[in-house]
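Retry 2 of 3 after timeout on previous attempt. Resubmitting structure tokens to design endpoint.
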């Protein structure tokens, strides 16, 4: 249970969790394993934590660095989203190229 005196600390800890980025690392691992779609869950988790942090719009004197951590988290989420989007799109291109290659092989064998 978080008391009224502890909530700034709790929010900073949540921001630290996001910045230490278990979700981002897991997303990158999924990309490397060739399963970028699995990373979408972790990106959504990162976004939910970020939106929760954004609810606390208090002066920095109270939150002691939460805004800076939130800004860093936003940039990290955007980079992760870009990496994930690129990986998913590259997977689609690879699938299309394989399909085209198979069709070309079939047509050259049939000639």
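Retry 2 succeeded. Sequence:
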């Amino acid at each position: 249970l978080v008391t009224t005196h502890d909530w700034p600390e709790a929010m900073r800890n949540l921001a630290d969790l996001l910045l230490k980025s278990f979700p981002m690392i897991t997303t990158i691992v999924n990309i490397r394993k060739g399963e970028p779609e699995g990373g979408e869950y972790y990106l959504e988790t990162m976004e939910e934590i970020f939106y929760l942090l954004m609810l606390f719009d208090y002066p920095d004197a109270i939150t002691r660095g939460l805004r800076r951590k939130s800004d860093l988290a936003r940039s990290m989420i955007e980079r992760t989203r870009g990496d994930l989007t690129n990986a998913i799109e590259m997977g689609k291109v690879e699938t299309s190229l394989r399909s085209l290659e198979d069709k070309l092989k079939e047509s050259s064998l049939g000639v």
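Attempt log closed. The radius of gyration is 21 Å.
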